[in-house]
């Protein structure tokens, strides 16, 4: 099979879908890998690194799409790429369709085979291809939140860890999934007081068992959220519903109850955000302020640490890429029910139910 690795062109996205090590495994199995020139440069991999393991270097993104039977990416195609995706072409990447009607419509019209990293499941129903980026984003959420709590960038002027004689900052983490656990771990390591909310008592018991005493758990409901946002300095939105829009747990009216300079980091922005006032931002222009509340809503947070993120991503995607390349997508999906869960759009039809539900009122689904 011919596998194409285009250069990511989303704003400030420096990750690449495959490391030279991954390319090497595909080439060893007799596949042809087409890498766009400088696709890996942001992650620390040169064209020469890819050539050394047998990749062909293509000069333009158009060449990669035109020649490849399967496109492997990091982020969803953006508008400039919509017309490059071909009928019957397999595209394997993070799509997050439920948060973008234009993307959904474009991929329906392309009649491509769209397999989404974020809905592939393992035998336990977990999301193995989302996990490493959620780990990165959860940890980064605290780094970025701590930065934007500083006064020069309109934050409250709070040091999360405090100092002797001064209480530490307070971090509220909504969601005890991978993002929430990693965020709580980082915040606790800095010495902040952390409250983590979830509706899953098993997750809360797990957090209670593994975290230090200054990480406390509470059941997530509107009453508790409304109370805590009044007193916490940094709020992390880490709620995920598989393949569906994130629930809006913080509404616009709640912002007025927060202290000026409170920072919200909505990691759920890829799925529409769990804060009503969320809108996607970029690393170039990462924040906006509403009612004196700082919103950090970068939709590709792991792109800021591309070397770490690229290696972590390839570690988990490569076995699936090999399966798709070796067997073809139809046989690969038939043999692996978890991989089959990744199929979101097939030949002009939406086949993943949460996407249908997300746009039930806005567009006609096939």
UniProtKB/TrEMBL annotation:
GO molecular function: alanine dehydrogenase activity; nucleotide binding
Protein's GO biological process: L-alanine catabolic process
Name this polypeptide is given: Alanine dehydrogenase
Catalysis performed (reactions): L-alanine + NAD(+) + H2O = pyruvate + NH4(+) + NADH + H(+)
NCBIfam families registered for this protein in UniProt: alaDH
Superkingdom, taxonomy of origin: Bacteria
EC number: 1.4.1.1
Stored InterPro entries: Ala_DH (IPR008141), Ala_DH/PNT_CS2 (IPR008143), AlaDH/PNT_CS1 (IPR008142), AlaDH/PNT_N (IPR007886), AlaDH/PNT_NAD(H)-bd (IPR007698), NAD(P)-bd_dom_sf (IPR036291)
GO CC annotations on file: plasma membrane
Binding site for substrate: 15, 75
Domain spans labelled Alanine dehydrogenase/pyridine nucleotide transhydrogenase NAD(H)-binding: 149-297
Catalytic site: 96 (proton donor/acceptor), 270 (proton donor/acceptor)
Annotated family: Belongs to the AlaDH/PNT family.
Originating species: Aureicoccus marinus
Occurrences of domain Alanine dehydrogenase/pyridine nucleotide transhydrogenase N-terminal (ranges): 4-137
